[in-house]
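Q: A reviewer asked whether we had any structural model of the full assembly, not just the individual parts. We don't, so I'm hoping you can provide one. Inputs are below.
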Amino acid sequence: MDKYVIHGGKPLYGDVSISGFKNAAVAVITSAILVEGTCVIGNVPKISDVTVHLEILKRMGAGVRLLDDTTVEINCTKLRGPKAIFDDLTRKTRASTYLMGAVLGRFGSAHVSMSGGCDLGSRPIDQHIKGFEALGAEVEIKNGVIHLTAPNGLHNSRISFDQRTVGGTINIMMAAVRVPGQTIIENANKEPHIVDLANFLNAMGANITGAGTDVIKVRGVRRLHGGTYHIIPDQIEAGTFMAAVAAAGGDITIHNIIPKHLECIASKYEEMGVEIEDLDDALRVRRLGALRRTNVKTMPYPGFPTDMNPQTAVLMCLAQGTSIMTEGVFQDRFRYVDELRRMGVRAQVDGQIAVFEGVGTLTGAPVQATDLRAGAALIIAGLAAQGVTEITNIEYVERGYDNMVEKFRTLGADISLVRELDDAEMLVNA
Ligand code: EPU
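A: Here is a predicted structure for the entire assembly that you could use as a starting point for your response.
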């Protein structure tokens, strides 16, 4: 079994550069389905979720070419019809739900296997379906496949989501891009990757306004042409490095970021005693003294991101006093707590609330990642802990973090990736 082996207790020093945003990349790549022309997309992170989405496009008949390490050229002009079932691939990511909006928007119908992604409790798609139906689609789920058809064609509409949904907002934006007239999406999410997707589609000829606010207006255009686009940096990867230096101590500078996207994380960490300096295009993050207790409630952007819940919980465990983490987005985000308990964490979880008693020091242990961000939290705990931590189920981490081990090693961490080949172990980072 592949694993990360960490000898903890070393502070982090130096510079790290953040990769392109996973959640923007998978949305932008999938939305290239709507474009008849060549899209050149830069700052694409090297992660397995991106590989899966490029593979889906290839199977649908798209031309996909890597121009360099982080730039991909996609041409979906000759895409084969609306059938994109591929259960083996759609199960691997949550963002495969975007195939519904993109394929429906391009061909007027779509047949897509249900998606997978991290298990964070029930992840229904009722709001996506509500939006597609408002646009005139008929939706039927049979044998694990979502069938979207529009016998009378799609038409513009006003959709008001009953609750905030990132995926629903993205899907309806994609489906509406080529629908005549103006579609209005109310109670829309405002996450940076929603704005990034709108910017990408606009660069390809779409007419989307209001992305980043509660109300997004999509005026349909006849077709989208090709172009060049650069994905925004990953706010959650940046936040993960902020949490890592806060936990392990040290002084690092994080480059290739948009400071505005990190404001909420930065102000909470400052409250906990972390020193943060905004250098315009970089953040210097230092933790010299003890961490102070705090309370956090995760919320849609610009609130504190749910995808920073587990990493921040590690800081709560190391802080002086008792802290409370309330999960405001997902039903079941605290499965990582049992793994942290193996490292000496004292916590009580009741539904969407976890109470962490600051224990000051953690001790290394064998642990398993339970999802992507949980895996990141275990790495952070391992970096801060005394002794050796071995983390398995690391395929979760590889889904969403580009070159994580190498980046931490550059900062002075003692972390190695060990690949297990049959019965012999191979150390990848010697
Ligand atoms: N929800 C519904 N009905 C719907 C849609 C959502 O009840 O029709 C519920 C969900 O069950 C959840 C909440 O609404 O409890 C929020 O779900 P949302 O649709 O906003 O999330 P998502 O689109 O499934 C994206 C990210 C997640 C991130 C969340 C919240 C991608 C590919 N995924 O998921 O990223 O946690 O938004 O910000 O963009 C990650 O990167 O580790 C990750 C899980």
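A: Points you may want to mention in the reply: The first helix runs from residue 22 to 31. The first strand starts at residue 3 and ends at 7.
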